[in-house]
Structures are given as C-alpha cells and as structure tokens.
Design brief:
Elements lengths: L2 H27 L16 E6 L8 H18 L2 E6 L9 E3 L18 E6 L5 H15 L6 E6 L8 H8 E3 L1 H14 L3 E6 L17 H21 L5 E5 L3 H7 L5 E2 L16 H14 L4 E6 L8 H8 L4 E5 L1
Parallel strand pairs: 1-2, 1-5, 4-5, 7-8, 7-10, 8-9, 10-11
Antiparallel strand pairs: 3-6
C-alpha cells in the first residue's frame, strides 16, 4: 500500500473517520431525539436498521448489505433485530419476513434520547481496512447501554454470508414473487446476465453528475453493444442474455438485439426520486432476484461507468458465478 492509500484508508480510520461519523449523527440524526419524547416499551435491547429518509441511504445494494451486516452482529451477540425501512416505500410491501421476524411498528420506535441512540456507520473504497473499521465501530457503538439502537449503515463486513443471511430474513412478497416467476418462465433455465451501471452518462438517470457528449454517448453505446455481442458469441449454449441497466436510452437501443431479454418496468434509484411509485422500486427488486437465477453474472465497466455492487450481491444470493469485466 502506498503512502496516499495509507493516508486515505488506515490513517483516516484511526484519526478522523470516527469523529466525522459522530459529527454527522449530531447534525442529521440527533435533532430528532429528545428527553421529552416517549420512551419505548421494550425491556430487551433491540437493534433497528433504519431507512427512514432522514439521511441518504444509498441504493438497494447499499441498504441490503447494511441490513445483513447489522443482522449478523445481532446474531453474534444474541440481540433482537428489527428493520424500519419506510423510505421511499415500505419494505414489507416488497419483501416479507422469512425465517426471522424483523418487523416493528412505528409506535414501537422511541426517539427518547435516554432510551434510544442513533448510530451511523459508512463505507469507503478500501475494503480491507474498511471492514476492520466497520467491525470496530459496530462493537463499540452497538454495545452501548441503550434499549434501542437505531443503525444507519451500508457496512458490508458480512458479505461472505450475504446469501445465507438474506434468505433467513427475506422472501419476496406475493405480488413480487408472481412477477419474478412470470419472467423466469419466459427466460427459461439457462441464461446469463449482463449488468451495466451508467449513472447519468446518457443524461437520463438522476444519479451521478457526469453527462457524456453526443459523440461520447454513441461511442459508449457502440462499445457496449460490441461487448454484448462478443459475450453472446462466447456462450453459444444460452438462448437468452438478460441485460439490466440504469439507462432507458441504453435499454431501448439494445432491445433491437434478438437474443437480449429485458425485464419490464421503468428504472429508478431509491435515493433519487422519492415521488416514484412503488412499481419503479419493485422493478429494482425484480432485476435483483431474476439476476440471482442466472447461470453466470457479468458486471460490465468501461470509461466513467460506475462499479456497482448490485449485481455482485444478486450473485451472492444463490452462489452464482460473478465476473467483473473492464473493457
């Protein structure tokens, strides 16, 4: 590790990051808590994963990895775990408890500052140092003597067990499961998947600030189409290739390829566009679950495209081989 990376990762974790996280809690979360708020009624300590819109929570992959890691901590420490996911939709509308009941009513959550503690644990771009830091912060903050600890996080130290822990927590709600089954019946049992994350490079998605020029957009589109074709040629045994992406423009163009399968619905992002209907968010979950049934998943990255964790965690659901392709 070079000096620059050491300063950005290890030194930052040691000297500044915890202070910065605590400062964010004081600025964005603590104002919602007071001594005058009603205390909770739970006698046993509860750890609650929070996605209530009081700060940015990230996309689906960020939220799910935070949920799974928080749940892992609770299992290790024999603590009750709950999920309060209400923004920009109610999680229970799309995912329901499977082997573990994580639901909690709004009136069971206390914002009394003596009873409950808000905690924020983030992620960085340095995984090895990051997971050590996240573990340290979880042990320090989640062990504090409060009856409720409200955790805002996208930590990922439980990634190796993501699929197993996710399956304990969740199964698709009936309406989502029907949509998944409908598309799986059309795809068949032997397909591969390609995942693209452009953010706003095509100028049609409210995430990311960089927009390519018309010439750059055409060059990017041509390059991606050529890569899709080459991967199709490399897998003659598959009839269909599922493609997921965050650009309607891109999806419209590749729909012209007869071996490409696109899932229905309009693309969206959970932290951008809170006025989007539940159908937009259900489309995100549809992508996630149908990806997880692939024979193999490729994440395609080139230029200023974003290295998303969405497809990687879909692959972890059922142990699907995952390959990142930089082209």
């Amino acid at each position: 590790m070079g000096l620059k990376d050491f300063i950005k990762s290890d030194l930052n974790n040691l000297l500044y990051r915890e202070y910065r996280l605590n400062r964010k809690v004081k600025k964005h979360l603590s104002p919602y808590y007071s001594e005058q708020a009603p205390a909770g009624k739970n006698e046993k300590k509860i750890i609650i994963f929070m996605a209530d819109g009081r700060k940015r929570h990230g996309g689906l992959a960020d939220r799910l990895r935070g949920i799974v890691s928080t749940y892992k901590y609770c299992l290790e420490h024999n603590l009750e775990f709950r999920i309060h996911f209400t923004s920009p939709f109610e999680l229970r509308d799309l995912l329901v408890p499977n082997a573990y009941d994580w639901e909690i009513r709004d009136d069971e959550i206390s914002y009394n500052s003596s009873f409950s503690l808000p905690v924020y644990i983030d992620s960085s771009h340095y995984p090895e140092a990051d997971m050590i830091f996240q573990r340290k912060m979880a042990e320090k903050m989640l062990s504090k003597d409060y009856k409720q600890i409200h955790v805002y996080t996208n930590m990922y130290f439980a990634d190796d067990e993501f699929g197993y822990l996710f399956s304990q927590l969740f199964k698709p709600a009936p309406v989502l499961q029907m949509w998944i089954d409908e598309n799986l019946s059309k795809l068949g049992n032997h397909y591969i998947s390609l995942s693209f994350r452009f953010q706003n490079l095509f100028g049609d998605f409210a995430d990311g600030s960089t927009v390519y020029s018309q010439e750059e957009q055409k060059a990017l589109l041509d390059k991606c189409i050529a890569k899709i074709q080459s991967l199709h040629d490399a897998h003659p045994q598959v009839n269909k290739i599922l493609v997921t992406a965050d650009s309607e423009h891109f999806l419209k163009e590749i729909a012209k390829m007869d071996f490409v399968y696109l899932l229905p619905g309009r693309v969206g992002h959970m932290d951008h566009g809170s006025e989007q209907g539940i159908a937009v968010h259900m489309k995100t979950f549809l992508d996630f679950f149908v990806l997880s049934h692939s024979k193999k998943i490729y994440l395609l990255v080139t230029g200023k495209m974003y290295k998303s964790g969405f497809a990687k965690r879909a692959a972890k659901l059922q142990g699907v081989p995952f390959v990142e392709v930089n082209f």
